[in-house]
Design goal:
Blueprint: H1 3-43, H2 54-83, H3 89-116
């Protein structure tokens, strides 16, 4: 067995554990953003039918897709830092928390703009 193959087999489970950790965090992330989106939508009075149109569903799904694509940045940053030897669970939690705070703010702003514009 070559040296490279032994190193690859030893290192791969570590990086796999990072990816699994992030995918578990994705569930928490999506639930929290869903709560923020609905709470923001309920907080602001909206014209009749704003949330029952197909445009709202399209808007909501589009923004959810964007949020999940941006969530992938956490994986990448965590893996790159781990390659340098500085990775840890604390780093993962810190990156997740910072990303979540940014996403919560963007979700709140996005839903507020949608509601205030009357759903257009």
């Amino acid at each position: 067995m070559s040296y490279d193959l032994r190193v690859k087999r030893a290192v791969t489970p570590y990086y796999r554990s990072i990816l699994i950790r992030w995918e578990r965090l994705r569930i928490v992330y999506n639930i929290l953003l869903l709560i923020v989106a609905f709470a923001t939508a309920l907080w602001f009075p909206a014209p009749q039918g704003t949330y029952t149109t197909s445009s709202f569903l399209k808007y909501f799904l589009y923004r959810a897709l964007q949020a999940n694509v941006l969530f992938c940045a956490g994986h990448v940053v965590d893996l790159v830092i781990s390659w340098t030897g500085f990775g840890s669970k604390t780093l993962t939690v810190t990156l997740f928390t910072l990303g979540l705070l940014l996403s919560v703010a963007l979700t709140h702003i996005s839903v507020t703009i949608y509601v205030m514009s009357g759903g257009d």
